[in-house]
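Q&A log
Question type: sequence-to-structure
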Amino acid sequence: MIIADAFKDGKAFMPFITCGDPNLDITEEIIYALDEAGASLIELGIPFSDPTAEGPVIQSASERALQAGTTTDKVFNMVEKVRKKVSIPLAFMTYANVVYSYGIENFFQHSAGLNVNAVILPDVPFEEKDEFAIPCKESGIDFISLIAPTSARRVETIAKQAQGFIYLVSSLGVTGVRDQIHGDIASLVQEVRSHTAIPIAIGFGIGSARSAQEMSKYADGVIIGSAIMQLVADHGIDAPDKVYDFAREIVEALKD
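Response status: OK
Response body:
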């Protein structure tokens, strides 16, 4: 599997989950549930103590995961088990310090050995990405670029250098479900498409089948995290079934 496979059958549903919340055994079950429900790609969040891009839901999920003893190595071990059953594309989403502390080359090489297809580091500025992007590419992994409404003059440069897919941040601020997504998404997508043919996935703020369907009109895929992790917070060890039901709603909405 490669990243492009996530987009080959229509609009892609790309759920995000925080690994280790409430524990890694439940995370594993949630991955299987998302795969069975029809997810196109799963973003696996490696918890970090200061997740600056995240809103309160995912911040709390990271805190619970760390309190449960989740480490990068334990996440890797869990993914090794998952890869025996799940073949869809997987992406790690974490923060620069997590990769630094593990060792940049070691992190990417280990990820490649697990058939992880992409890595997202939201706190790495585009101008400073080479320290991570180069060894990432050398390991055969796509280093995902983010474009936000504030990217302005950098959109062309970012788009032309992008790999895998472009993570389009739908609104200012941190992750979290929003009642309404503000900003001219259509114009931003149009500008990005004028510079690259790489798929575009919209994230930040999407939390329902209705909003997923609306955003999918503009992009090739939608990314949903906070709504899923709220289900995990609410249902704990019973979350896999709830996540499956939610994921099926999204998948069906994206077919319409």
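Response note: The chain has a mean pLDDT of 92.
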